[in-house]
Amino acid sequence: MSVLLKLAQKFNCFYLSGFHSSECKPFIVEGFQVGLIRPDVMRQLINFPEVFHITRGCVELNPAFRDYEGRSTKIDQVLRKLRDKNIFVTLKGWRDECYEVKTEFCTRSLLKMDRCATCLFGIRNYGVTINGYIRHPQKGQCLWFQKRSATKQTWPGKWDSMVSGGLSVGHGIFETAHKEAMEEASVPTSLLNKLTSAGCVSFYFESERGLFPNTEFVFDLELPLDFIPENADGEVECFEILPIKQCLPKILAPDFKTTSAPVVLDFLVRHGVITPENEPDYLKIIELLHIPLQNIYGNHYHIKENGVAIGDNV
Amino acid sequence: MSVLLKLAQKFNCFYLSGFHSSECKPFIVEGFQVGLIRPDVMRQLINFPEVFHITRGCVELNPAFRDYEGRSTKIDQVLRKLRDKNIFVTLKGWRDECYEVKTEFCTRSLLKMDRCATCLFGIRNYGVTINGYIRHPQKGQCLWFQKRSATKQTWPGKWDSMVSGGLSVGHGIFETAHKEAMEEASVPTSLLNKLTSAGCVSFYFESERGLFPNTEFVFDLELPLDFIPENADGEVECFEILPIKQCLPKILAPDFKTTSAPVVLDFLVRHGVITPENEPDYLKIIELLHIPLQNIYGNHYHIKENGVAIGDNV
């Protein structure tokens, strides 16, 4: 097995485990599965029976909370109590910034939740990443990377793509890309008109923090040779530019953020650096960059009287 | 649902049917699943009990045929008999050109089979497609298409990508891309050094002919403004070039080859024409361009005495 396939398996460790299906339970809101809940989280939610109905087959948000605001408020109250109990490491990184919780990306939101908490419920989350690159007359194509600040809540001090950010409540995809490019790397608006939408990657990672079914909207941005990114929000330690052939060792190193490797791999595939003739596991790797996250929770659940949830494909 | 998602569902009709799992049986060679067999094919194979062992759980190629040549010869004999009986429309297109039959793309081949017959066994097949394009100073990016000759065995008279071809026995991926570019469109070697590997698409289509789990290795080729493709092998009726914004109506029209639409969709995604802001089903479409074909048959089968095959993930 090639080192790149091993990397693709690493950021898909939860997908390839078969979702630990015997241990995790579907999380149901308004009859729709929106996530998966691990046993460690279940043991805490059981203390909030007025909010979560835990049965043999699933964890259901009390259907008495009928609207977006009501559901968001109740979940927020539980999460703040759990944060105060200091049980989950991820809740130490409280952001006061929420992600939407939906059945599919393009459907209406059922509730919102602080972004540090979505991994406790296996909620799909969405972000944008910008591959900033130049075409150097001697060195050829070169790609910019950022080193994350040592004070970041997640993956401090790790190397990462030039610009990325989560899609929080109230912000669009292109809007987030523009905002992050300006905040993280001081890319002026005049350069952002070259920003090109280039697809997405989807993968399902698990860590001690929780579950990460992640989809990244991917953008390429060709930059002038003399542009040097400068951080404006204190979240970046430094930037570095590398000839494209040196990017593989970069993302394979232990100081590269595991969940940012997929976007770089996708860039190297699309730009002809990783090819079917130099990478034996080419097809498997590309399939692992696009796992069917929009489908995995695509079930409508009927909650039966005996508490067993039955999933139907809709 | 958007028209593009409907198209992606059309070329994935078999994948989205759940592989008609109650009707189709795994096709097993040397203990590995390499395909799926529909009931109409099963009814014919039952007449060759010395070649195919058909049980409740699967169809197994007689394990007494122990090597590549032996297996290939036996299957070839059966296929020629079936061709003479005129039962399967696909066998009328006999090519005298074989595809390899493997458990995974990068593993050794277990046997070879005429390319017109692989759809009867649901064998994964592989091809190359070249997106030939120009950057026009006024019209912007424009993409070349070919109209298939009216005498082609499959999809006669339909519109298609500029250049494509199946990966037959003995030919490499880049080699096939170069060969087809020269034969189908007279692209000179001097222009082929700009050929850029750009990924792959995978989908699972079904038609009256059979089952098509297809993977296409995708190449982009920027061409000079004054290059006009000319066919050299009689398989193309004509070529046409379209501004990139007019490509969506082209692939949505009924005279476009359904199984060539994925590569064009992927091109339009990678080049920023289809974006998450103009296509509501963006994520689902991209996932349906990369279904996990390398995994679906990834089982090692133990043939039990009672004839029921048990699959284990390997």
UniProtKB/TrEMBL annotation, chains A, B:
Picking any one GO molecular function of the record gives: 8-oxo-dGDP phosphatase activity
Q: Where is the Nudix hydrolase domain?
A: 125-266
PROSITE patterns found in the cross-reference section: NUDIX
Protein name, UniProt field: Nudix hydrolase domain-containing protein
Q: Which organism is it from?
A: Ceutorhynchus assimilis (cabbage seed weevil)
